[in-house]
Amino acid sequence: MLPTLPTLPTLPTLPTLPTLPTSPTLPTMPTLPTLPTLPTSPTLPTLPMRTLSGPVPDFRIRAEFEDVKALETRNSDKVASLLEEQANTLSSLEEARARERTLKPGSVLGRRGRGP
């Protein structure tokens, strides 16, 4: 047989607190309507250039490409020609300035073009 445990004294019961009146619930704010999402525009397929009369034939595109390339070549040749002409002109100018410095001070050209 098991020994019996002493019984614990019972605690006094606490007085119950009066219940507080419940506060009125605040009205909830209405939620803003969500804006509809705009549909995305479909991506356009890559098409060859079009004119009012329809697609441009490949041979015309190639011909225009060749024309542009020829124009670029002509322009680059003109630029090279102009740069060469500029170099020649600057060289001539430097030679003329050097000749002017070597002239005697009493000569006509040595007086910077004032004449006799």
Question: Brief overview, please?
Answer:
The protein is mainly alpha-helical and 116 residues long. It is built from one helix and two strands. The chain is elongated.
Structure write-up:
This protein is mostly helical and 116 residues long. The chain has one helix at 58-102, and strands spanning 50-51, 54-55. It starts with 49 loop residues before the first strand and ends in a 14-residue tail after the last helix.
Give the arrangement of secondary structure elements.
Blueprint: E1 50-51, E2 54-55, H1 58-102
Mean pLDDT: 77
Largest sheet: 2 strands, antiparallel
Point out poorly predicted stretches. Answer: none
Helix count equals 1
Identify the strand order in the major beta sheet: 1-2
Backbone shape: elongated
| Share of residues in strands | under 5%
Radius of gyration: 51 Å
Structural class: mainly alpha
Distance between the termini: 155 Å
The run of helices and strands is EEH
Helix content: 25-40%
Count every beta strand, where a strand is a DSSP E run of 2 or more residues: 2
Biased composition (Basic and acidic residues): 94-103
Region (Disordered): 1-55, 90-116
Biased composition (Low complexity): 1-53
